[in-house]
Amino acid sequence: MREAGNPLSAWRKIMASQTKVSLKSKLRESNANYMDDLCDSIVSLSDTQTLSGVNTFSSAPLMTGIQRITSDAATEVLAATSLVDFAVNAASSRVVTMPAATAGRHIRVLWTVEQAGSDRVFTKAGSDSFVGNISTKVEGNGAGDGDAVAVTASTAAITVVDDVNIGSYLDFHCAVDGVWIVSGELIVDAVGSVPTIA
Predict the structure, then answer these.
(1) Domain interval for residue 37
(2) Which residues contact 119 (CB under 8 A, 6 or more apart)?
(3) Which of 17, 30, 179, 192 is the most exposed place for a label (fewest CB within 10 A)?
(4) Are residues 28 and 115 both part of a single domain?
(5) Minimal CA–CA distance to 158: which of 141, 171, 175, 174?
(6) Is the pLDDT of residue 16 over 50?
């Protein structure tokens, strides 16, 4: 029977934050060296790990870092965001400030409400740059009329003009610090409704 007031909760927190070497030492105090093998096989929060073998999930892992925009205002894309959902129209010109371009970061911007009122202006952080191409298509046009807008390294802002339809998206990928590689497809109402580059 455990003694009253035994601080198990505090002990568990301490053990969870230990490195493998520290865990081994603690476990030897009561469970002998056969616990070494167990410690070597687990992943702790304080050690560098390489996972080998085939890892499976009982269900598909979900994307985290979803930023749903429901307020008609300027937007700052957060550092932890991987998906931006524009779920509100832009009644007047709205600035969208991108986070710092850090190698390995990917952000998709998706329209789930038609942007019919005004434009959204994507701006970079600090000395970051945009490069890439943005494809546009005209809604309901069987000929596929549209355009491809080149985004060059001197681009400071990408203005997505009004009449952007549901299902449109932009992808921002960062392979090297300081550079956003931009691609995507905007479904617009007219050929003239292509993004402008400044």
Answers:
(1) 8-41
(2) 90, 93, 94, 159, 160, 161, 162
(3) 30
(4) no
(5) 171
(6) yes
DSSP strand pairing (129-138 vs 75-76): unpaired
Whole-number Å distance between alpha carbons of 180 and 103: 9
Same domain, 125 and 82: yes
Whole-number pLDDT of residue 26: 66
Cα–Cα separations (whole angstroms), residue 168 to 27, 108, 144: 55, 10, 15
This prediction's pTM: 0.71
**pLDDT for residue 6 is more than 60:** no
Residue 104 confidence (pLDDT): 94
Q: How many residues can be counted in the chain?
A: 198
Higher pLDDT, 16 or 58: 58
Q: What are phi and psi of 195, to 5 degrees?
A: -60, 150
Question: Contact, 121 vs 157, CB < 8 A?
Answer: yes
Cβ neighbours of residue 29 closer than 8 Å, sequence gap 6 or more: none
Q: Checking DSSP bridges between strand 129-138 and strand 146-155, what pairing results, if any?
A: antiparallel
